[in-house]
Amino acid sequence: MNGILNVLKPAGMTSFDVIAVARKITQQRKIGHTGTLDPSAVGVLPICLGNATKAIEFMIDKDKVYRAEMTLGVTTDTQDSSGKVISSHPVDVTNNEIVDVCKSFIGEIAQLPPMYSAIKIGGKKLYEIARQGETIERQARNITIYDINVIRIWDDISIFGENSSTVQYATKKVLFDVHCSKGTYIRTLCNDIGEKLGCGGHMSFLVRTRAGNYDINSAFTLEEIMELAKENTLSSKLVPVESVFRDYDKVQLNEADTAKYNNGVWIKYTYEKENKNVNKRVYDFKGVFLGIGEVFDDGRGTFLKSKKFFRG
């Protein structure tokens, strides 16, 4: 089974939990996901099966779109609603101020990864260190926020704690869509927006609506995937791996060049005169997708060589 399965990850499961369930359903040994989602988050999690796992390195770099709910007035140690409250402040800001501050984060910004994350420093994951009550120095990373669209703002009461120890806080909720680059932590974005507003904030809900070329409208729940497997129709729902590279120009080789390309031989590139030094979607003379090729000029002429081979 080769291809990409667009999974709708449920809340309460890690991305690796989803992989484990998908592996059991598909009986597929070669399987991997294209970017983790926090256990509390839901949404698009493309999973690669078989030879499509070779495309993961290309898919991780793609941009993402999220719908998030931000709660202003309360900060937590995890920057989301699963953590412990570390501060609370009155939300004395107008809706226009909230929108303006959200918009101020559009562009390339430096973001400090949260302690509760899977990033490894010194061989240990940050969340493992955080659970021991420690905080260590992290390096800020450059990320890009392409757009933020505030959908709705409303007053609310947020409750933290359990049973008799619950505490209520007067807060504002902000529902917004954000289009961002890989490596962006939306809970950190919420925390930073709250900090800039002077009242603090955290992420109270998150759904990933798009990851690269795959959106939530075409995603399958794990229950739907189980039913498709029982009906032996799951293979028909897999997205061909070539869809990852739909923005690349297509090159279809003749029969002689197909044989050379399949054997790793550089091909004298005569298929077009423009667009040198770029990647191409390469197909054999019968129209079968072979993989990604790189067009380059080495001084002796222009050639095409295989960069990633997917067939076989």
Pick out its properties.
18 strands, nine-stranded mixed beta sheet, about 20% helix, alpha+beta, Archaeosine Trna-guanine Transglycosylase, Chain: A, domain 4, single chain, elongated, about 300 residues, Pseudouridine synthase, five-stranded mixed beta sheet, 3 domains
Description:
Responsible for synthesis of pseudouridine from uracil-55 in the psi GC loop of transfer RNAs. Belongs to the pseudouridine synthase TruB family. Type 1 subfamily. Helix content is 19%, strand content 38%. It is built from seven helices and 18 strands. α1 (15-26) packs parallel to α6. The longest helix has 12 residues, at 15-26. The protein is elongated. The model has no long low-confidence stretch (mean pLDDT 90).
CATH architecture tag of the largest domain: 2-Layer Sandwich
CATH topology of the largest domain: Pseudouridine synthase
Count of DSSP E strands?
18
CATH class of the largest domain: Alpha Beta
End-to-end C-alpha gap: 12 Å
Structural class: alpha+beta
Q: Which helices and strands occur, and which strands form pairs?
A:
Elements: E1 3-9, H1 15-26, E2 31-33, E3 42-49, H2 56-59, E4 64-72, E5 74-76, E6 85-88, H3 95-103, E7 107-111, E8 120-121, E9 124-125, H4 126-131, E10 141-160, E11 167-180, H5 186-197, E12 201-211, E13 214-215, H6 222-230, E14 249-252, H7 255-262, E15 267-268, E16 279-283, E17 289-297, E18 302-309
Parallel strand pairs: 3-12, 14-16
Antiparallel strand pairs: 1-3, 2-3, 4-11, 4-12, 5-6, 7-10, 8-9, 10-11, 12-13, 15-18, 16-17, 17-18
Helix pairs in contact: 1-6
